[in-house]
Each structure stands twice: as structure tokens, then as C-alpha cells.
Design goal:
2 copies of one chain form a homodimer.
Chain A (H helix, E strand, L loop, with lengths): L9 H19 L4 E2 L1 H8 L3 H9 L11 E2 H11 L6 E6 L3 H8 L8 E8 L8 E2 L2 E5 L3 H7 L4 E4 L3 H13 L4 E4 L12 E4 L2 H12 L3
Parallel strand pairs in A: 3-4, 3-7, 4-6, 7-8, 8-9
Antiparallel strand pairs in A: 1-2, 5-6
Chain A binds a DNA duplex (24 and 24 nucleotides) through helix 3.
Chain lengths: ~210, ~210
DNA sequence: TAGATTGTTAATCGATTAACAATC
DNA sequence: TAGATTGTTAATCGATTAACAATC
């Protein structure tokens, strides 16, 4: 069925990577077909919700059969935009920035860290897994001369907005923000936040209920 | 008003750390009082929602006045359980585990990394910012002999469930999971996930809409 | 074919927003 | 007091679940 992308709610969108994870896992375990019911049991969702979710993008299943795991995985692969190669740069070459650069897991889905940037002279000139650390002053030139699809911000929160403004000025449309602050952006720029302290406080909050 | 903790929805709970962030920021900028309306403008929520959220925990405001920033911040501090000291250990001393150990930002809210654990002999015996890296074989003994409130799992996904089972066996009730897998736990054990790849794929998904 | 399971519509549930009386 | 703003109830909206006809 044709892939028609209507409005997709935040809730549905957030479940897509999870489907992708489970389907990738099942495929590598040689599972060929799955019903919404069985998938619901594995994932802790309802079968109804799963069918509703997939039908936001068109029907991928077959009555009486269920879903072909490889096919469905491929569809979600496409939906998530993992067919594209995405270069990203990491701003802030501290521990977290270096951890992102060192992590190779994203590469097999086409996400490649091309460079890091920092203000610290002791970091500038280093190379992390072959990825160079440049002076932050070279940021704009670098973006202008290279294909950069995304920027990860791993600076202290005090610098995050300033950095964001700068890269947005360079035409960047997608920011992966690790700084503990909400970044203000124009409507055509996407920010995906990873607020580690929010996550930790949530864990702490729930510990109180035990 | 008395602090009565009824059922708090996931949605409300997820907003609490954000309130805490904004209130901390406002307090340090010397702002003394705030109305739900003004807070809503700063945070991009509705005033109604903010009042509903706070009233899950009892009323913290005053008609005609609004909310006292310091007081409200303190209330949320308590709600999040940040009055308690929480020791945690990090399992998996790779880049991400080391980044967590190196990050000092959690400490001022009472979260202290006490030890790291790994299987890699080249890492065992090291010390990260004074925090020792132990052999994973010492995990159970360490937990038995020390106060450990939380465990962060930063291992490859293949090892995560096994590690989780082990620490749950030692009585740990709170897991901060960074491995790209959903961990199965008994109902009295809390898992807070930080799935970086899910987050990245979400960003990629939304880039397709631009 | 009969059984299974989808795609999709309808019903329910929960979260957000609006409204307003209470009150500082 | 009059004005402002909360706490709270009622209305709306959206997301989840249930149901079932379509069909493989």
C-alpha cells in the first residue's frame, strides 16, 4: 500500500524506534512473520495500538497472516529516514561529546560523526577514533564547506543557546541537545532533547513511591 | 497545604524535572514570585496545565499573588526526592560509563557515583575522577557491603538483562538503563531508560517532514 | 473452505484546556 | 476595596482500546 505520511502524533512517533528495535532483533533471530497480537505481548503494548500505529503510514500487513518481519522492519527503516546518510558534528568535546564520537553503534544506521568542536586548547587538535577536534572558531567555516545534517550540542548549558543560534545561522535544521536547557529555535528547526538530569530526577521521583 | 501524593500520571511526572529546572534558574536570577500565566509563557505550557500539575501535590500558590519561586522550587525538590542522598554505581566503564562518572552536575543534587564495574582488565583498577573501576565479579559483594541506591547500566545491550537480574537479586530497586534494550523486571523495580538511538532516530524521522 | 488476522470504525478513557467561584 | 490569580469543576480534545467486517 502507498506510503502516505499524514499527521503523526508525538506518541506514535516515539514508538517507532522501539518497533524498529524489536523488529531488527526478531529478524536477526530468524523470525519471519509476526501478528500484532504476538508483537503486543513482546513489547507490552496492545495489538490494537500496534495496528493503529502502523496504519498511520499505510497498511503493512495481510489479513489472516500478520506482518512479514523483514518487510515491516524495512518500512519502518524508511519511515525513520534511516535510508539517508546523516553526517553530524559534535559541539563540546568533553566526556559526553567524546562518548558520542567513540560510539560506533550509530554508524551502521548511517549516522557518522565527522568532527568535534571545543574551546579548550588542550582538546583542540586531538583526534577521537580518527575524528578531529577543531577549534570552535572554525565551526561556521566547517559547516559551510562540508555536508552537515545534524549538530549534537554537548556544551555546558550556559553556551548551548549561543551555539544553537550560530549553527542555525549556518542553515542547520536538526539539533540533538544534551545540554540541560531548552533551546529556542525557529519553527523549521528541530530540537531533540536528551536531558539526563531530568531522566535521573524522574527515577528519583519514582523511588519515593516504592 | 499538606503534601498528599495521590496517583500522578506519567505526563505530569515527566514535567516535574522541567519545572524544577526553570524554577532553579529563576531563583538564581533573583525572581521572587511568578504566576502560572507567566510561567506558562516561559515554559511553553498553558497556565491551566501548570495549576493542574501542581495541584496533584497540593496547592502551593496563593490567590491574587501567584507562586513564591523559592518555596515552589523547594516543594518540587522534595517531590522529586532530591532531599535524599543517592549513591549509584555504574556498570560498564566504557565511554558512556566514564562520562557519567566524570560528570559532576548530579552531585549537587545528591547523586554520587561511588564505583564503576567492568569486565575489561585494562579498565579494572583505573580510577575516574577518584572513582574506582572494579571487576564485575565484585559487584555482588560491593552492593552487599555498601549503600547503593541506584545502578546505571552502560554495558552493551547483550549483557544488560543479565546485569539487571544480578543487581535485582542484590535488592536494587532502581535502574538507569542506557543499553539499547528493554529490561524485564519485577513490578517493584523501576527502570528509567535513556535510549540514545531511539532519540536519534526520532530526530531523523522529524527531519523527513521538513 | 474455515480460521486467522488485518484495517478501520466506534466506544472509552485520560489528559488538556476553559471557565469561574473562592480568596488573597 | 478592587484586582489578580489561584484551586477546582466542567468541557473539550486526543489517544487508546474494543469491536467487527473485510479478506487473505
Amino acid at each position: 500500500m502507498a506510503r502516505e505520511k499524514n499527521y503523526v502524533s508525538e506518541a506514535v512517533m516515539r514508538r517507532m524506534p522501539k518497533y524498529y528495535r524489536y523488529l531488527t532483533d526478531m529478524e536477526s533471530n530468524g523470525i519471519e512473520r509476526i501478528s500484532s497480537k504476538e508483537l503486543s505481548q513482546r513489547m507490552g503494548l496492545t495489538a490494537s495500538q500496534i495496528r493503529q500505529d502502523f496504519n498511520c503510514f499505510g497498511g503493512f500487513g495481510q489479513q489472516g497472516y500478520g506482518y512479514n518481519v523483514s518487510e515491516l522492519r524495512q518500512e519502518i527503516h524508511n519511515i525513520l529516514g534511516l535510508t539517508n546518510d546523516n553526517n553530524f558534528i559534535v559541539i563540546g568535546a568533553g566526556n559526553l561529546g567524546q562518548a558520542l564520537a567513540n560510539y560506533t553503534g550509530f554508524e551502521k544506521e548511517g549516522f557518522t560523526v565527522k568532527a568535534l568542536f571545543d574551546i579548550n586548547p588542550r582538546l583542540i587538535g586531538l583526534s577521537i577514533r580518527g575524528i578531529p577536534v577543531y577549534d570552535i572558531d572554525e565551526l561556521e567555516t566547517h559547516i559551510a564547506r562540508n555536508q552537515v545534517h545534524m549538530v549534537a550540542i554537548c556544551t555546558p548549558k550556559e553556551k548551548a543557546q549561543e551555539i544553537a543560534d550560530k549553527v542555525i545561522g549556518c542553515g542547520i535544521k536538526a539539533i540533538w541537545n544534551f545540554a540541560a536547557i531548552d533551546i529556542a529555535t525557529p519553527p523549521d528547526v528541530i530540537v531533540e532533547n536528551v536531558h539526563l538530569s531530568d531522566s535521573l530526577y524522574t527515577l528519583s521521583f519514582r523511588m519515593n513511591d516504592l
